[in-house]
Amino acid sequence: MRLDGITLALVLSEIKKQLIPAEIVAFHQIDQYGNMLVLKNNQDYHRLFFSLRPDRMAFFISELVPLPNNTNSMFSRQLNSLLRGGRLLAIKQVNLDRIIELDLEQYHKFGPTSKYKLIIEFMGKHSNAILIDAKGSIKAVFKQVGSDINRYREIKPGIFYKSPPEPNRLNPLTVSKEQFLSMAQKADASSQPEYLWQFFASRFQGIGANSAQEIIDFLNYPSKQILSELTANQLLLLWDGFRKLTEKIIEQDIFPVLLLDKESGKPLDYSLFCPKKQPGIDYLPFDRISLCLESFYTKINQEDKKLKLYQLIQKSLNKYQKKLLEKREYLEKRSKKIEKFEHYKKEGELLKANLWNIKRGMKQITLIDYSDPTHSALTIVLDPDLSPLQNVQQLFQRYKKLASDKKGVQKQLLENQKPLKQLQEFLIELGTARNSISRLTTLYEKLIELDIIKNKRERTIKGSGQRIPTPLKFISADDWTILVGKNNRQNEYILTNLSRGNDFWLHNESRSGAHVLIKNHQNLAAPPPATLNFAARLAGYYSKVKDGETAPIVYTFRKYVRKPKDVKVGKVVYSQEKSIPVRIAYEEIEKEIKKMTAR
């Protein structure tokens, strides 16, 4: 995912309009590289997201990326400790480079106000996020860098921050006509011919290779236009066109477009300027750059998730197929061996009829097989340590064992055919579901139920062998954790294992349904109104309330909820409750569920 200085400049303009100034509610690390700053501005909550993944750097105001269940990374804990409850005062970009600085302030009840600066450097594999204090000392860092990795500068807590080297390039938004023409003439004089897009990408700060190509398209030049072939008048026209484009950027008169593959719907790229129409590509316009970037980022992650899920299922099915085929091969070999079991019966009957002729210690004996029309001679191997009668008994025992094994092996061969047939159906289903995350997820869950795929995340209650229920988890806009039980076992588990006396418990007063628990980590007398309203609508939504219906939801402290003796799992009685009516709108609540589902 490309991210250059121009894209960042457009995002910053949106942030300054919508978020500055803002209160810092929380900081979350979404995954290995993704980070989320939750802000409150004019009673509205906003999310500022940035990703430091080298091949997928991103920065935008988020509306879709879900919050995690918790923040366990050292970096997120340090930022929450230092910044939670503080304010975001300003945000700026360093010389149109891929470096963002957030000016932060933290008030203290006693003592002076603390000033901080969060510096986010989008630099490929060297991307980093660094928190420094007013003196420039590093307080927290996303990724520590020692002198063994970077000899120019170390990035570690406790030392002073050193800026990365400044590139010798001009700012395209402030460049003058004289500077532009002078630079173009110097490029003309160089020994090697240079394409026009290379001129923009190498001489101007904040313009990446993709943006440079788009600029050339926007100015109606061919992609392989050589700069030295332009006349003086054409250079003036080039400047005029470039100046108009930079004015559009400064005035935010840019309407980004998402490029999607027409057949598969896969995201291909995004464009800041109007791209030329190409066959096989759909163009999805956006009125805000953050919406476009988030849509692109989300779709790419969705494709990654889809591919990983497909590969996991394919690997599991191939492993299962190998297991079934090996079992069938073993059973077929066993069946061929068992087919000879009648031979032991014949030898036993011959020995039994000729006991008088057998002496202990004999290793073999040759007898006439009268059951054979040709009266052929049959040599029978004997155990010299056994008596003649014991040798007869041994042959009959082998015969009986193999005779009983034959029925079992045939039964297992028949039983093995059913999963093999089912496996072929799964492989066909996998092929048709390759481009659908919902169908792949359904197939994955089905394979877990059949125990073809082992669910590594599932744990069991110690000593009982029972699986631990996994209730739904949400993070509200106020950064409060909400748990929802979707069945009686989950409801019981929430009450008995995941709750404390001062947590808030909610339930539909008129219908059976989900138990909802708001975790009261701060031991407050009441949850924030927005959190309570969201939890109440969850209680209504997960209790089969019809769309558009108003549901009476009761809530009380967990300590006033108890389970009487000899009642069904999940059944409780409560007291000291309060009631709030909430209207259940499926479309609205489902959007919030997607947005606030915890990972």
Average predicted confidence as pLDDT: 86
Beta-strand residue fraction? 15-25%
Largest sheet, strands/sense/barrel: 9 strands, antiparallel
Give the strand order of the largest sheet, numbering strands 1, 2, ... along the chain.
4-3-2-1-5-6-7-8-9
Could you tell me the number of beta strands?
A: 22
The gyration radius over C-alpha positions equals 37 Å
Q: Which overall shape is indicated by the principal axes computed on the Cα atoms?
A: extended
- Specify the number of helices: 13
Q: Spans of 5+ residues with little confidence (pLDDT < 50)?
A: 458-465
The class by helix and strand makeup works out as alpha+beta
Instruction: List the domain count as a whole number.
Output: 5
Sum up the structure in keywords:
single chain; 599 residues; alpha+beta; ibrinogen binding protein from staphylococcus aureus fold; Helicase, Ruva Protein, domain 3; nine-stranded antiparallel beta sheet; six-stranded antiparallel beta sheet; 22 strands; extended
Concise synopsis of the structure shown:
This protein has 599 residues and is an alpha+beta fold.
Protein architecture, described:
It is a single chain. The protein folds into five domains: 5-141, ibrinogen binding protein from staphylococcus aureus fold (Roll); 177-250, Helicase, Ruva Protein, domain 3 (Orthogonal Bundle); 257-287, no CATH class; 308-456; 472-596, no CATH class. Helix 7 packs parallel to helix 10 (437-449). It is built from 13 helices and 22 strands. The protein is of the alpha+beta class. The model is unreliable at 458-465 (pLDDT under 50).
